[in-house]
Structures are given as structure tokens and as C-alpha cells.
Amino acid sequence: MGGERRRTVGVTSFADAAERHLDDVYGYLAWFTGDRFAAEDLAAETFERALRLWHRYDPARGSARTWLCQVARTVALDHFRSERRRLRREQLAAVHERLDVPLAEGLSPELESAVLSLTAGEREVIALRIVLELDAGTAARVLGISATNCTTRLNRALKKLEEALVVAA
Amino acid sequence: MSRPDLLSALRESRPAPPPELRERVRLIGSAASAPSRSRVTRRRAVIVVVPVVAALAAAVVLTQGSEKQPTPTPRASVGAVEKAPTLAPALGAEAVPAPAGNRAQRYSATLELRERSDAALSDATKRATEIASSLAGYPLRLDVHTIESPGSADLVFRIPRVHVEDAVRRFTALGTIVSEDVSIEDVQAQVNATSNLIARLQRQLGTLRVEEQTPTVQRQITALTARVQRLQRGRAATLSATHFATVELRLTTESPAPAPVRHAHGPLHGLGIAFHWLWIGAVYALALGAPVAAALVAVWLAARRLRRRREDALLSRS
């Protein structure tokens, strides 16, 4: 009986969590991949996987947003790996096809260009710390690194972004 | 662009998911309302139940094995039999070999009995003497010591061989049998040989007596006669000895050796044994498993480091 109640609560919570944190997950994936179309597919895949793994989610160990971002990161890494294999097969490793769709509304062309010049790892840490406004500890948990390392990565990424903006200007 | 302006621009640039994606995720969320698969699958149940059942079975087997008391081994040799006083007469009589009635045999038996007290020892001594007398026997030696502790009595009886079985049976009823020794020596062949020798000598005597009685012949007759008489006395003594059996009775009040202490096992005794073996198993597992666990941890750390390097390499491109 208790297990039934817990499962019902869990199901309700997942629906709520999916609706509440869709923007965060999508924004994170869009920044991470630099591709809004890919981010759409990955976001959907993230929530499908999250639904399967929802019983593992423990609220005591972190918020639903953090957990969903961790799932999203795993999905994105799988995506990157499959993309790399696909590009190797097609011998197009140096060319990443990207449709001409802006990464986000409100970004100036110079800033978007600078953002896209960053590596995926750099975009990822900016997405987590700046766009999603996660604190250092939470972002580090998503990345699987220490908070100090996370802050260091963020500073490097921002510095590189500023330099790219200067060059673009 | 200053750092604060840059951060502000980045924060305001959060991409919004398209309506199609919202609908898709909403459908995924609504699919969660369907009953999800139970977390307790058959496989998980088997993984949990099988070790538990095996552990319980092992505990039961170990418990039964440890509670099994060693079966008392009957002291089968004639020289060592111990039994309850009430059972002693019948068992004692069966244990004593019967003398052969038609052969000359030296029969001796030694019984060691334990009495409860000095008073019982005195009473047993009197009753043993009465038994011997009632069977036409007689005491050869009686040594009774009840002043010192433990008290003891050494009784030696001569009992007619035909009654020795009855005597032993009745003696064994006087106390708890500690040991029993029976010795039978067949002297029939020796008696027969002596008789044959006597007969031959008597034939020689008969021959000498019909001869002319010279001094030499008379000396031979005297010597042979003396020798025949010695042989006849010896044979008579041997046969006389075989008519009576010697029964030695040793009575003692020495307290028996303390019986092995049987611990009263409580209902959780088996559980204690199970934990004992579990503890031994845990020590073995620790000793054998620690190096394996260390190796596994090292492998896991190396794999994690490798995975992070690959991740970094994967994310190092734009």
C-alpha cells in the first residue's frame, strides 16, 4: 500500500518535473550541442529515458532539475559519440553540418558566432552556470567534476568568449 | 562588451523549446500515468531469495550437525562394561562366558562394582558373602576399607564351577559394574596326559612286581610307586582346583567421573552457530576478497579516468 502511494507520487512528480524543467533541459542541450534541432530530439529522448529511470531518482540527493540535466548530459554525450562515428564513416570529421538556425533569440550575430566558436565542453559549462544559473556545486555535480574545476572551466570559457567577441568586433 | 553585460546577454538568450517539443514531452509525462513495471521483478526476487534460502539451509544443517550428541560407544570388551544397576544382572550374566561342564577348566572372574556410599559398600560385602555361602562357596580373602575415602573392598570367593554363572549374575546386582574380567584356562589336556603317564607307569610297576624281587627291582618299584603317587596327587589337585572358580569382587565408592556438561541450548543457539560460521566466512571473504576488491577499485578508477579523458576529447571540439 505504501509502495503504491509512493509510486503514484513518483508518477505525478515526473509529469510535473517534465513540464517544469523542459525549458532548462532544452536550453542546456541547445547550448551544449549548438544545434536547436538536435536539442529538440535529445530533449525528447532525455525525458523518455528519464521516465524509464525515474524510480532511481532520489530527491534527497538533488533536485529534479539537476537529475534531469545529468540524464540530458548522458544523452548528449551518446549523441556526440554517435555523431563522431557517423562523421568518421563519412570522412567529414572536419566539417560539422549545422542548419542556419540561430542558437537562441536575442543573441547578436557576433555573440552567437563567438559562442559557436567555443567547444562543446565550454558551451556546456556556460549553459549550466550562466544560462540555467546553477550554482557551482550543482553544475559540478552534473558535469561529474569538482566545484573548483567547474569554476575554472567557466572562467576559461568566458575569457575565450570575450576574446572571440573582441576579434569579431 | 563588459563581463556583466556579457553575462546578462547570455542569460537573456535562453532558447525556448518549440510547441511541438512541449507537446511531445507532455505526452511522455502523461504516459507515465500508466502503471509502471514493478521494481520487484522475478529476477530480483530470485537474486534475493536464493542466497537467503541457502543461508538458512546452511544454518539449519550446521545447527543439526552441532546438536547431534556423540553416540555412547558400548565397551564391548569383556573387561570393561558399565551399565545401570537395574540392568546389571541380566546383562552381566549374558556377558560372562559359561564354563564347559565336561572339561577340566580353571575359571576366574574379576568384577569391579561401584557403590553409592560406604554403607552400601558394607551391605554389598555382606550380601556377597551370603551369596557365596548359599552357592556352596567360601570367601578366600576379604579386605574391606570404609574409613578412608573413597571406601573399597577386595573380596575373593571360591565358588563351585557349576554355580559360577549364578554367582556372577548375583554379584553384579550388588552395584554398578565398572569392569568385568573373565579368564578360562582349559587343563583337560594336561589332566589327560598325566592320566596316561600314570597308566603307563602302573603297567611298568605290574611288570616289575611279577619279576624276581632283586634289590634293584625293588628300588625301581619303590621309585615308580612314589612317582605315580606324586602324579596322582598333582592330578587330584588340578581337578580339585577346576571344581571351584575364583571370583574376585572389587567394590569401591569412588565417585564417578563427572559427566560431560551438557549445556542447555536456548532457542537462539542455532542462530549463534550460524553467526559463528558467518563470521568465519566473513574473515575468509575479507582475506581473499580484499586484494580482488582493491584491484577492482583500481580498475574502476582507471576506467573513470579514461572515460573522462575521452569525454574531454569529445567535448573539446565546437
What does this structure look like?
The complex is a heterodimer of chains A (169) and B (318). Chain A is mostly helical. Chain A has two domains: 1-101, RNA polymerase sigma factor, region 2, helix turn helix motif (Rna Polymerase Sigma Factor, Chain: A); 102-169, Arc Repressor Mutant, subunit A (Orthogonal Bundle). Chain A has helices at 2-33, 36-52, 64-90, 109-117, 120-131, 136-143, 147-168. The termini of chain A are far apart. By secondary structure, chain B is α+β, with helices and mostly antiparallel strands. Among the domains of chain B are: 88-185 and 244-252, Alpha-Beta Plaits; 190-239. Chain B is built from nine helices and five strands. Chain B has helices spanning 3-11, 19-31, 42-67, 88-95, 118-134, 164-172, 188-210, 215-243, 269-315; strands spanning 105-114, 138-145, 152-160, 176-186, 244-252. A five-stranded mixed beta sheet of chain B has the order 2-3-5-1-4. Chain A binds chain B through residues 7, 11, 14-15, 18-19, 22-23, 26-27, 30-31, 34, 36, 39-40, 43-44, 47-48, 51, 54-55, 77, 80-81, 84, 96, 103-108, 111, 116-121, 124, 126, 130-133, 144, 158, 161-162, 165, and chain B through 1, 3, 6-7, 9-18, 20-22, 24-26, 28-33, 36, 39, 308, 311-312, 314-318.
